[in-house]
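Side project, low priority. Logging it here so it doesn't get lost.
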Amino acid sequence: MANRLIKYFFIGLLLFPFAFLLLLSLGRGWAYPDVLPQHWTVENWRFIWGIQAGLGRSALLSLSISLGIAGPVTLASFVVSKFIAYDRHRRRWLVLAYLPYVFAPVILAACLQGFFLRAELSGKVWGVMVAQLFITFPYGVIFFSGFWNEHMLAMEQLVATLGGTVRQAYARVLIPIARGALMTCFFQVFLISWFEYGLTTLIGVGKVQTLTLKVFQYVTEANIFYAALASCLLVMPPVVLLWLNKKYVFSRVG
């Protein structure tokens, strides 16, 4: 009985922030010393597609950027990490992959801003996506660096011995084996891009209004109800990805 109560307590503790955000997103008029907002309405959620808020457009923009980053980065880092893993200077390449994480994203963006201004990429969606590659692609390379080992090399050599091509080795052997790792890398790169703030702020110069920027905007304005609404939209994809990860990745491992 005690174990069950402790279990429910921790579940409630984990779900409380999400429930509280949802509660705030439905409220209006919260004055001291009231414990709860004075009015409850769904008007805040109708505000998503309003002209002034643009939360719906920001959510779609963030989703497009994150998906546009996660897919190509996962595939490219999977291939590039193979060449790095089998190279004699493997450690040097991995040290270079860790280099972008020496700086905070804001400092990294400040270092890159001059190049983006000259390339006329500042304030554009493509510019933000290119900037995010500086932190997402190295992460993918580091993530897959442990996948390539002697066993994988032997499998690839076996395919070549049996007359298979490199393309067949990837399609029928390497990718099926790495399916779980590919999905996990895709989810994590998506989340890095989804929650990214520093690079998007400086390289986007306020013109690329992602959902993360909207949350900080409402928090700065002390608009707690719209901030909660934007936060609800912000946590939805991670929750969905967590469920998919648990269902399709960890279930197979178990």
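Brief comment: Residues 30 and 150 are 62 Å apart (CA to CA).
Revisit when time allows.
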